[in-house]
Amino acid sequence: MQGDLARLVGADHVESDVALADASGLAGRVPVLVHPAAAAEVAAVVAWCYERDVAMVPVGGRSGYSGGIVPVDGEGARDTVAIALDRLDRVRSFAPLSWRMEAEAGVITATIARRARENGLLFPPDPGAAEQSQLGGNLATNAGGPHAFKYGVTGRWVTGVEVVLAPGELVSFGGAVRKDVAGYDLRSLLIGSEGTLGILTAAWLRFVPAPAAALPVAAAFPTVREGCEAIDAVLGSGVVPAAVEYLDARCIVAAPPPFLPGAAGAGLLVVCEAESEEDRDALLEALGVGAVAPPAGEVWRWREGVSIAVRAALGEKLSEDIAVPVDRLAEAIEGTVAIGARHGLEGCSWGHAGDGNLHSSFLLEPGDAEMRERADAAARDLFAMARELGGTASGEHGIGLLKAGQLSAQWAPAAVAAQRAVKAALDPKGLFNPGKKEP
Amino acid sequence: MQGDLARLVGADHVESDVALADASGLAGRVPVLVHPAAAAEVAAVVAWCYERDVAMVPVGGRSGYSGGIVPVDGEGARDTVAIALDRLDRVRSFAPLSWRMEAEAGVITATIARRARENGLLFPPDPGAAEQSQLGGNLATNAGGPHAFKYGVTGRWVTGVEVVLAPGELVSFGGAVRKDVAGYDLRSLLIGSEGTLGILTAAWLRFVPAPAAALPVAAAFPTVREGCEAIDAVLGSGVVPAAVEYLDARCIVAAPPPFLPGAAGAGLLVVCEAESEEDRDALLEALGVGAVAPPAGEVWRWREGVSIAVRAALGEKLSEDIAVPVDRLAEAIEGTVAIGARHGLEGCSWGHAGDGNLHSSFLLEPGDAEMRERADAAARDLFAMARELGGTASGEHGIGLLKAGQLSAQWAPAAVAAQRAVKAALDPKGLFNPGKKEP
CB A185 to CB B188 under 8 A? Predict the structure, then answer.
């Protein structure tokens, strides 16, 4: 196997017996990891694998939260080859005047954002780990982030994708054109499919002119209900905030905001971001007495540390990314704490309030297997609560390996059958990222 | 057949031997047209048809431009039943504070926009014929419109769809939740699929607070090149206009803008819309000397009449809706005129400049069959030009019956095969809207 693959990508770009892990805590090993240099080499590797019933796992920046790159043996697959996209790191074209870029799957997310910013443009998707994650992984999970409230998730900024489909065909759906209804929207189908329908090798991205300002406002509230009422007031203010974030009481204790020193005793902290002074004033008014307008740099530096601070509370945590309709947010925030308590765990949550997207978490002692088991049971209750509230088990991380089986609980059997039929149509041998996004 | 269907939807809601036509000029007949009252009745009709190999054509407001509702005999289908969605006209829920509505497929587009507006919200999609078209048709074609430049096409405002899939299963993909990556994005796959994968019965829509103002600016330019340079200046101004429209010289003669009386001799008229005075001033500066800032009402009333005025020039026209990357716009505008000239026709174009979306047209004498044949040949050249410029045969109207076969010219064989595989997976008998969106 190594010899054949070395002929396709060069001997220097084939690794043997490689451990693969992401930020989910899941890990596994593959016999071979190849690093193709270009889309045509990816196609050659896929063709080689597809012909021989060898399973494939695409590997990006390894910053995912659902175990999407962790290999499992595919049913009927003889073996598994991991395909790293890191050498597909070229920005193929950048046309700032047309607000557009064509970038390969291995380009680092932060590089795209930086190139845009240097030209007065904004690439709005802002998932965490921007310095580590790659465009391909952002596409595979349709990654979100705080500013998805105003700007939507990654897929909204993609006008075309280049992909290797079974049995090794390099094709494109869409391109530099901004509007196209000629074919089925296979671009959107592939985005968020977690590498289970093909391997994305490049995308055409679109940008917008960067907003003049990022003007956060923040306020703390004594209870979850009052905090959520403030979020309603924000949504009713007539302003479209760029982001609407929240932290519950336990998270505020773990990650006290330097810009709102009195917040630590509160039930909910709400942070919004405006893009004009007029809008900021409207948001300040919506948040009410005690609202502050700290510098954006301070807010987002702090915000990026929240997940780490929550983990540090006891040393470990299990975090999910459920989403619910925004008018069910208070129930989901309180439900997270209640579910934790039922399992003898501290439950807490923070996240993207405007999108109803919660990073519901349970605090854990490192290495405590029994506690971890209770947390896994609590996570199942969390998914059930999200469903009951009209929501989803995953707002932005994807199903991966971690949440395999959740879709069947969430979707009707005929809807699940439709997903399976599409998978079988595009990957008849079931070789693309087996075990991931399983209904 | 009529008897069975009458039992499913009521005898008063079954019509026999019905003519079906839309705005494309194509027409046909079906033996039966049923008007189910609810999604469950649609599912019952689909189940009845699917079991008996009867083809189905969904019918909305009949304002489409591609013949999407014009029946053709399906291969292997015994007969055809048209399914009108007009009685599914309920707004099931409207939560203005959560910026959201659940509406059935037969709700008139203008009703949705009006309900939103009355509550300080904006439903951004603005395809033509808003008083006639229905949500289901807007979804089936993923309809665009002038404001798609800033806001995107219909699908961007849909968080969930309810659909009847083969062999008669009523299911939902997505819902009121704003973020969801648990399953494949079958919602986006269904949107724009022109009724060929199932029949949409309802959708969850999202809104945004209505902008404070609609402030158009306009200027005329002596040549296409200078007009397109002004569009570049607009895109480089740092402002995101809500719409960027254009008309070429022939269209200006046919539909002279009352707010820019000197424009009739120009090569290109450019109209943009700002949402704040500051942005309007930046757009005025970008358009340069001679730019005016007319009232929005006057501009959009005039703009809505452009298509009719162009038709009236000779009495008939053939209009397409190609789209190209925005930096190829000038070539496409000039190419339309040149292609017309090659076929002895007056070619002209207007449309959504910011999206590179052209309503390229050829002026016709009513009833002149030979002239119509030349126009059909010219349209084929137009599609070829769009492909050569990196664009598409359809930016917003869909393939329908009119442009059947264009996708195979535009997509690689393996990409076309993927579309066919998805179609076969979800509609194995090929009974949903046969002959439409054919690659």
Answer: yes
